[in-house]
Structure formats: C-alpha cells, structure tokens
Specification:
Chain lengths: ~120, ~525
C-alpha cells in the first residue's frame, strides 16, 4: 500500500493543543483508528441508500478528524464528498466512498510510521 | 497494536523537537475554577477539545449531543459552552435556541466550533441565536484561550452585575419592609449584605443600624405606654374593688345579710354582663369543656374566696387582712415562674417587694398591726391571696378565648349565684327585696354593676398585662379602701401615707406588664 501525504505541522499543532503529552496524542490516534472505520461504514450505508444527509454528516466528521492528523488527501476527499452532498449533486457516491476508504488505509499506514514508528 | 506497546516506539525526531511555546503560553493564561462544557457528537473531537480545555487549566465536562448538554446545563452550573453545530437530532442551533429561551441559562457564553468550510451562513445564524464567538475545528491553544477568556470575562462582569443588582433589589425590598412599618432589624434580612466590606455593604449596615435605633426607641416608648396603661387599669381595678367593702357596709346598714346580698349582686352582675354580650351579638355556645371551666371559676371565686373572706374577716383585723391579701403578687409570681407562664426577673420580684413595703407603710399609718389576729387565723387568711393567685393564673392560661369577655364574666357570676343559692336557702339567708324600689334595691343594683365592672377590668388586665402585673391590684385595692374611707368616713391621711402610695407606683413600674411576642409595627409616612 502506498504512503499517504501527512502534514507534520498539523500533528505538531494537535500536540500543542492537548498540552504536549505524547501519551494523550497516541490515545487520540487510537481513537481516530477506531472512529474512522465507523464513519466509513456509515458512509457506505448512506451511499447505498442514497441518504445524502447522513453521507454529508459522516464525511464532515471524518474530514475534521483527518485534518487533526494532517491526513491531507483523506481530508480533501471527504471535503469534496461533503460539498457534493450539500449541493445535492453526488455522482457515484459508492466509488467516492471507496476512494476515501483507500485513502484512510494509506493514511493509517503513514501515521503509524510517522507517529508511532512502526513499519 | 496497543497503546502501551506503541509508547516504547515513539521515535520521530520532529516530535521531540517541537516548539512547546504555544503550550506554555496556553498554560500561563489558565483561569482556575471555570467549568466548561464541551458538546460534540464526534468522539475524537470531543476528546481533543476536552484535553485542550483542561490543558488551559479549566475544568471540563463533555456531552455527546445537544439533549444531554441541555440536561447537564440545567443540573450543574457551567461558565462556558464549546458547542459543535453539526450534530444529529438536537443540533447546535437547537441548543442555542433552548438557551435563549431559558432565563437561567441565556447568559452562559457559547463558543461554536466550526470547520469554517462554507459554514459562514451557519456561523451567522449561530451568532444571531446568541453565540458569543466561534472556534475553528483546527484551532491552536492561544486562540482557544483568547476566545474562552473573552467569554468568561464577559460572564464574570455579567455575574457581578447580576449580583450587584440582586443586592440593590434586596436593599429596595428592605426599604419596602420599613415602609410597611416593620423596623425590627431581623425582618429586613440585611445581615449578610451588611457583612460585605464595600459601598453597598456599608449602605446596608447603615440602613439596618438606623432601623435598629428607631425600633429600640419605639419599643421603649411602647413599653412605657403599655406599663402606663397597665398601671391605670390596676388602679382602676383597685378603686372599683375597694368600693365593695364600703358599699357592703352601707347595705348591711340597710338590713342585708352577706350571703343573700352576694346572691343578688352576682345575679344582677350576670344579667348586666349578658345584656351587653347580647347587644354585641356575642352570646356564647358552651361545650362541656367550657362549662366545666366556668363552673370551676365560679366555685373558686364565688364559693371558696367568699367563704374564706367571711371566716377570715371574723378573726383577722381588716388592715392585717389587706396586708395578707397583697401576698397574692408573690404567690402569682412564684406560680408563673415555675410554670414559665411569664418572665421571672429579679426586677419584677423587687417591684413586688417595693409595692409590699408601700402597702405596709399605708397600713402602719392606719392600724396597729401587732393586734392583727391570732397566729392560726393569720395562716388561714393566707388562703385568700392563694385563691386570688390561682384565679388570676387560671384566667391567664386556661380561659376559653373564643368566648366574649362580657359573656365570660356573666356566666361566672350567674353560676356563682346559683351555687350560693342552696347555702343561703339552707341558712335562711335568702334576702327577698321589696317590690318598691328603695335605697337597698338601688344599692344592690349598683353593687352588681360595680362587681361586674371590676371583674371585667381584671379580666382585661390579665389578658393584656399578665397575671403577675394584675396581682398588684391587691395593693391598689388596699389603697383604694383607705381612700374610700377618707371620702366616706372623713378620715385623714398623713404625708407619710401619700409617700407610701408613691412607693407602690414605683413598684408597679418595676414589675412592668408581660411583654408581647408580636412584632412592633411603626406607622410612618415616608412620602
């Protein structure tokens, strides 16, 4: 799996926000790896059922969390889908969600390497 | 991989070299004590913001949706709210709307959290709904601190303003209490306000102090008037009672006998009192308890007191008997103190002693007390003040207050006449009055009115000034007996006797009537 682009300054900012405690940062990263698949599942369900409202909310949430960890590509894809939902013109929602899923997998690998030192 | 395992591998260089300046700045600006509620449905964002808030030194609670947040806000005090707008079900706008409609919550500063991507409209709407400010989702601690401190400072000012107006409101309420005439410092409720060392505290303290001064002054004045009224009543009771022996002697001179006379006097007094009660529309309905009370009272006053008087006057010299009767005050005082019906202070005890000295002085100018009577009869005569004391205490503590005063006296007099009737019949002392209205008949009617009037006065005195103060009427009775003697028998009194009267008045001042528990209301016009 290819590495995703991670904005290191975003992680630096997040660490500053939470007081510089590295344990807390890792706790947040753990939380990200738990909640992101939940959002992806909701997005897939919403894409299948054509529920644009739930698709928009889930995209919005995943976008915010991705930005906190500097997952630029993932955040960008989520933002595009959120905008599309807001305008009501979503083309092939399922493939967009699949792209977001792949971007998350890549971001996860990169974050594990960068923050935790695995890989 | 678990967190604990990962910690060992925390290795990236840039992380250890990061600039901690923002963190240090944030911590320096922390305001201890403020409590912030973080509302966000996104678990990661919620956790991040809670950590950030705690890092700034604030206390932080979290709510995962708008409904939980509103419930928490209504049960616990929060100083500020960090609110996400986009939430399922009860969203940020709903929360803002609910806060706006709630007087207790509308002043809590709300900072909405926004991603700022095409959310300008949402922000405008949130601010229109009462949000103080907004915070981007990707904020730095300095911005968070600045936003929170601005909101908290505003709230602090607002709280101080509310507290200030609350204190002004209480001062105004205290002024209304004064306006209603209640000057008792406790009724103003300014004690805690006056404890503040600031201008309003000083104002409250001055306000309360002035009210206390006026209250004390008015209380003293009222007490003095109360004592004066009581003394006047004591004298009136004594004067009217004191007339009875003289009238009895006059009736005796016209051929009456004591028992027959008592029946007529009591019966006429009963008719007189009942007539007034009927005119006032207050004829009583008696229950079993009330009837027993009046029967006991009539037995005590009509039979026991009268019989004891008859026997005592035959064996004890009249002046000595007058002196013995004044012991009523001490007996009443003793009973009242033991039963805690009235305040038993040394001052009142001294007052009674001073009165007794005064009576002794009066009697010394009139008689030779050394030939007052034999010892056993002197002891017997002491039954009289004891019976008087019991009567006054029973009237003070047990009388049925719902029965009119005229009806009460009428009932007692009527029952008393009925109780005496068999004795008089058995002794052949019944005293038929002539069909023609002559001197005796007029005298009997007058004695009935005098007898009932003295009882009515006594009744009123006991109710308003208490049994102990009333007991001093024995002194007044003795004085009145002497004065009536002067008037009817042309006796003369020495200067010494007049001084003795003054001593008795001083005694009355010292005994003073019992104090009432009701709060003093002072009528004042402020406008």
């Amino acid at each position: 799996m290819s590495d995703a682009k991670i904005d290191g300054s975003a992680i630096e900012r997040l660490l500053g926000v939470i007081g510089g405690d590295r344990d807390d940062l890792l706790e947040l990263l753990d939380e990200f790896f738990v909640v992101a698949p939940d959002y992806l599942r909701k997005m897939q369900e919403a894409a299948l059922s054509g529920d644009l409202d739930n698709l928009r909310i889930a995209s919005h949430s995943l976008k915010s969390n991705s930005r906190d960890f500097g997952a630029v590509d993932l955040a960008g894809l989520c933002q595009s889908l959120e905008h599309a939902c807001k305008s009501g013109a979503v083309s092939d929602a399922a493939s967009q969600v699949a792209a977001i899923d792949a971007a998350f997998a890549a971001a996860k690998t990169s974050l594990n390497k960068l923050v935790v030192g695995n890989g | 991989m678990q967190l604990s395992q990962r910690q060992k591998h925390l290795s990236i260089n840039w992380l250890s070299e990061m600039d901690d300046q923002a963190v240090v700045q944030a911590a320096a600006g922390a305001v201890a004590g403020a409590k912030i509620l973080v509302v966000d449905d996104n678990a990661l964002s919620r956790k991040k913001i809670r950590m950030a808030v705690q890092n700034l030194g604030y206390e932080a609670d979290v709510a995962e949706n708008g409904a939980i947040a509103l419930s928490m806000l209504r049960t616990e005090p929060y100083d500020a709210l960090l609110l996400d707008i986009m939430m399922p079900e009860v969203d940020g706008f709903d929360v803002l709307g609910a806060l706006k409609d709630d007087d207790a919550l509308r002043h809590i500063p709300v900072i909405v959290i926004s991603a700022l991507d095409d959310e300008t409209e949402s922000l405008v709407r949130a601010i229109e709904l009462g949000a103080e400010d907004f915070l981007p989702k990707t904020f730095n601690p300095t911005i968070l601190r600045a936003r929170l401190e601005a909101g908290l400072t505003k709230k602090r000012f607002r709280d101080q303003e509310l507290e200030y107006f609350g204190r002004i409101k209480r001062l105004t309420a205290a002024a209304s209490v004064l306006e209603s005439g209640r000057f008792k410092p406790e009724s103003l409720g300014l004690d805690d306000l006056a404890a503040h060392d600031d201008p309003i505290g000083h104002l409250a303290s001055m306000f309360r102090g002035m009210a206390a001064e006026i209250y004390e002054r008015e209380l003293k004045l009222k007490k003095a008037i109360h004592t004066l009224q009581g003394s006047f009543l004591v004298l009136a009771v004594g004067v009217v009672w004191g007339l009875t022996p003289a009238l009895s002697r006059m009736a005796s001179g016209l051929g009456s006998n004591p028992l027959g006379l008592a029946i007529w006097v009591n019966a006429i007094a009963a008719v007189f009192c009942f007539s007034i009660a009927a005119y006032r529309g207050k004829l009583p309905r008696l229950g079993r308890r009330e009837f027993l009370f009046f029967l006991s009272w009539a037995f005590l006053a009509g039979i026991l007191q009268r019989m004891t008087t008859f026997v005592a006057t035959e064996h004890v010299e009249a002046s000595m008997l007058s002196l013995i009767v004044t012991l009523q005050g001490f007996m009443t005082f003793g009973f009242a103190a033991v039963t805690r019906m009235e305040r038993a202070s040394p001052r009142r005890m001294i007052g009674l002693l001073v009165g007794l000295v005064g009576v002794g002085m009066v009697l010394l100018t009139k008689s030779d007390l050394s030939s007052g009577g034999e010892g056993i009869w002197l002891v017997f005569a002491m039954l009289l003040p004891l019976l008087f004391a019991i009567e006054s205490l029973v009237l003070a503590g047990k009388r049925p207050e719902h029965i009119d005063i005229f009806a009460s006296v009428g009932l007692m007099m009527g029952i008393s006449a009925a109780l005496l009737f068999p004795f008089a019949y058995w002794n052949g002392d019944l005293m038929p009055l002539g069909t023609q209205i002559g001197r005796l008949e007029l005298l009997v009617v007058f004695m009935g009115i005098v007898g009932s009037s003295s009882l009515l006065l006594a009744f009123h005195l006991i109710a308003t000034a208490g049994a102990v103060f009333y007991s001093q009427s024995a002194y007044a009775m003795t004085i009145a007996g002497v004065v009536w003697g002067m008037l009817l028998l042309n006796e003369e009194l020495s200067v010494f006797a007049w001084v003795a009267f003054g001593v008795i008045i001083i005694g009355m001042y010292l005994v003073e009537p019992k104090s009432k528990n009701e709060e003093l209301v002072i009528q004042r016009t402020f406008r």
